[in-house]
Specification:
The chain has helices spanning 3-8, 16-26, 90-96, 100-104, 109-120, 130-145, 156-163, 174-180, 191-211, 217-233; strands at 41-49, 59-68, 71-81, 125-127, 153-155. It is an alpha/beta fold and 234 residues long.
Length: 234
């Protein structure tokens, strides 16, 4: 294997129709980080994977729910299981509930990722602990589509303690914050169910933002950035 291949991998070969769909998505205008919160559409996302290693594990499923004009639209949701060459371990399956048959019979990876891009459009992404979701999605995009996926994200794991610093040390997980705002989850560790819970938490963040006269997505990113700095320096 050449040095170039070891560093960057082999660029995948896409069909004509797949290449056109990817090109169409890439031609969209850049995400508007200055969009007003009450007018924008946000895509809240969660993933399921073969494990928790950022370096070794693979993407299995993506779940996403849109929040438009501050409201969750259940009709505007997305879920896909990405086809696996071999199913993940039994212990892993017990966590997310996606059985071996469902994994092996999933959607071809390039098609699954293109469907996600088309659902996303150019709208901002929201997650809880963005690093994991973003890393898994970016790696899959690079491997199966040859796409360097760069997009605007918001991490509620920093926004919420940025808004409510008195809860910083007692509220660390999605479950902690969900319980705080009486958000139920119909299937914990299901990508779509966790995305829906995160979307409800995002609605809580939007409510607090209105109280603080925060009107734009970029301002929420600034809250996240400030809280990250506080977390790293403390």
């Amino acid at each position: 294997m050449s040095l170039f291949s070891r560093l960057f991998g082999n660029r995948p070969t896409l069909g004509v129709a797949e290449s056109r769909r990817l090109t169409d998505w890439q031609a969209l205008p850049a995400c508007d980080i200055h969009a007003r919160l009450e007018q924008a559409r946000f895509v809240v996302v969660d993933v399921e994977t073969t494990g928790l290693s950022l370096n070794q594990d693979r993407l299995i499923a993506i779940g996403a729910v849109a929040v438009s004009h501050g409201r969750i639209d259940l009709a505007d949701s997305f879920e896909v299981i990405q086809k696996q060459e071999a199913s993940s371990t039994r212990d892993n399956i017990l966590v997310h509930g996606i059985g071996g048959t469902a994994q092996i019979g999933g959607v071809e990876p390039a098609e699954a990722l293109l469907r996600f891009l088309e659902f996303l459009g150019n709208d901002p992404l929201v997650a809880f602990h963005v690093t994991f979701d973003e890393t898994m999605i970016k790696r899959a995009m690079r491997h199966y589509l040859g796409l360097d996926f760069k997009h605007a994200w918001l991490d509620l794991a920093y926004v919420m303690p940025g808004f409510l610093p008195e809860l910083t040390h007692t509220h660390r997980s999605l479950d902690d914050w969900s319980n705080r705002f009486h958000i139920s989850n119909f299937a914990r560790h299901s990508a779509l169910a966790d995305a829906l819970s995160t979307a409800q938490l995002f609605q809580a963040a939007l409510h607090i933002a209105r109280q603080k006269n925060i009107a734009k997505f970029k301002s929420l990113q600034d809250v996240e950035k400030a809280q990250r700095w506080i977390s790293w320096s403390s």
